[in-house]
Model the fold of this input.
Amino acid sequence: MKQTKRQIYILELIKVNGEVLTKDLSTKLNVSSMTITRDLKALAHTGAVKLIYGGAISCEMGTSEYPMALKEEANIDGKKRIATHCKYLVKPGSSVFIETGTTTLAVAKEIFRTENCTFYTNSLLALNALSKFNGIALHTVPGKYRDLSQGFLGLQVVEYVKNFQFDIAFIGTEGIDLNSGISLPNEEDAYTKKAIMQQAKKVIMVADQTKFGLTHLYKASELEEIDLIVTDLSDETPLFKAIAEITDIISVTSLSH
Done:
């Protein structure tokens, strides 16, 4: 098992059980205790877990944020299904903003084929992915680089996007909650998203099922401000049904193209 996948597995165990022990993980994953110790130290450095003697315990989810390398490995199939559906939402000739995040990155890799679109992004990952394709109009957005977001945030972004009215914006998030709306653990990330959403005719939130029910410190928007949420969360869950009463939401698990 690769390092990133192993660390995601460890995070999921901690999320379920509240704590893990190094010796148990070593046996379960068939790796040395030293390897597990390095994994736990790396996770502790992100703020996701707290080290204890012989293992680690969970930290408050609302204050932690995982590195992008870990996020990319999480729920790859779900993000792919979300992205595949999104390509049907973009009309030829549209101006499209792609915001930071791994689900928005998956969307970028699908929708670039739409004819005569102009793409704007503050995501370094999306920029690198789209730059490999010929024949598309691609613009990067200026701002302060943030490593955890793998993109550009802050006042420069806010001032720049005021000059535009995008046809559609694909936005990512760290948390979606019925009462708290769309929220992030980082203040700059939250107000940057808010500014981008204000300059879009249609705001599409793309979020895999792991983001639902989570609340972070900084609110980016209310659910009512989102035009459409595309997710792999089952439409049979109570949370999905409750959100559907507030705004449009699509579950790709119930769709076929």
Q: What stands out?
A: The longest strand covers residues 49-52. DSSP finds ten helices and 15 strands in the chain.
